[in-house]
Write a structure and sequence with these properties.
196 residues; rod-shaped; five-stranded mixed sheet
Length: 196
Amino acid sequence: TFTGANGHGTFEIINDNGVYKYQYTLTENINSGSTQGPNTMVDADKITLIASDGDGNTGNVTIHVDIKDDAPIVEFDGAYVNGVLQHSTSDDIYSISSGQQITGVIDVVGGADGLASVRIGTTSIAMADIGTSSAPTTIPGGQYGDLKVWVDGGKVHYSYDAKHNTDLASGGQDKFTVTAIDKDGDISTDVLTVNV
């Protein structure tokens, strides 16, 4: 096993009855610098193999590896209004009446780099909670209703309870932004919008 020239992974060289094969294993998170989102780092790692015969003649070949840097995924996975599955008008926008409740799941996937942080608005979700269970946390910022989130079964669940007529001077719109950052700094967001 040999470490690549740029140190991002290892090459395993296998002699299969005179036919040499290789396998490359990425061993660290790849930081693609200022480039956000999924992208490919061309020639990110490499190794040069040299073969020689009994006369001292040599030949060589360099194996170049392009590494695809992915980004975390954040998306709202359906929503239920008072227990009935709803389809958003577009891009996770839902309309409900005062006193009604929306519940659903936020899918958060770190990709190959893993998650560094997740937050809803300015409220962080402890990464230790992902994959376990946690008590509901109220997210500040809702003017027309209250958003609560909790972790269960490796997913982030949420409920939004619209305020009752007696607590509302008029209808309006609440927005909540979910932000996920992976361990090499790539950012993904999604927004839940509720019209009350």
